[in-house]
Design goal:
alpha/beta; Rossmann fold; about 40% helix; DNA-binding; phosphorelay response regulator activity; WalR-like; two-component regulatory system; phosphoprotein
Length: about 230
């Protein structure tokens, strides 16, 4: 029998704390709210935690200080959830020891996915099953054989192009920002400088799809927001 996964949610805003706890519980984990840095310390002294969701702007003891305490005690992963979206703050927090950084306002599905991702790395939780076949219009992806066909003709894709397309096909109604896309496919934190990398890969992928079927469009850009499958 697997042991329970305990997540400490450190956030002083009651509504946001409840929202984060709800995300944690819907993922099948146990959530414990804490509303200040000093309260969080009491819970950290009380038991071992599988993950800490941490706001930076906390009363009593700031999140940066609490992060330092957690890092001094062991390997418990920390995901920062903060309204402080400046790039330098993000970089410094990650270098200090945070495992991930989510900027408010956040997407509920993104928070859930990032929690799962961090816990998989630390606890070796199994990844969610991917269907053998993903399809959209006349585009079909075989996730076992790693092949993609358009109208029955096989498409030659690079590994990154395949991963981008697989992400979109597995989440047909989701709009992915460039940050979502980069962090999901590359598995690294998006700091802004990677935008051109995403543009190039997405452009190449769309050109290959357009060449395979000039009469249809599979991926659409929502300007200023991101990408999604085109219905």
């Amino acid at each position: 029998m697997e042991s329970a996964v305990h997540v400490l949610v450190v956030e002083d805003d009651n509504e946001i704390n409840q929202l984060l706890c709800g995300i944690v519980r819907r993922s099948g984990y146990l959530a414990q709210p804490a509303y200040s840095g000093t309260e969080a310390l009491l819970y950290l002294d009380k038991q071992e935690w599988s993950l800490v969701l941490l706001d930076l702007m906390l009363p009593g003891l700031r999140g940066e200080e609490l992060l330092g305490v957690i890092r001094g005690r062991g390997e418990c992963p920390v995901v920062v959830v903060s309204a402080e979206g400046e790039q330098q703050t993000k970089i410094e927090t990650l270098r200090t020891g945070a495992d991930d950084y989510i900027t408010k306002p956040f997407d509920l599905e993104e928070v859930s996915a990032r929690i799962d991702s961090v816990l998989r790395r630390y606890l070796r939780l199994p990844a969610k099953a991917v269907p053998k076949t993903l399809a959209h219009k006349d585009l079909v992806m075989d996730t076992d054989a790693k092949t993609v066909t358009v109208g029955g003709a096989e498409l030659a894709l690079t590994a990154r192009e395949y991963d981008i397309l697989a992400l979109l096909l597995a989440n047909p109604k989701k709009l992915f920002s460039k940050a979502n896309l980069f962090e999901s496919v590359w598995g690294e934190t998006f700091l802004g400088g990677e935008e051109n990398t995403i543009n190039v890969h997405m452009s190449n992928l769309r050109n290959k799809l357009a060449k395979a079927n000039p009469d249809d469009e599979y991926i659409e850009t929502i300007w200023g927001m991101g990408y999604r499958l085109k219905t």
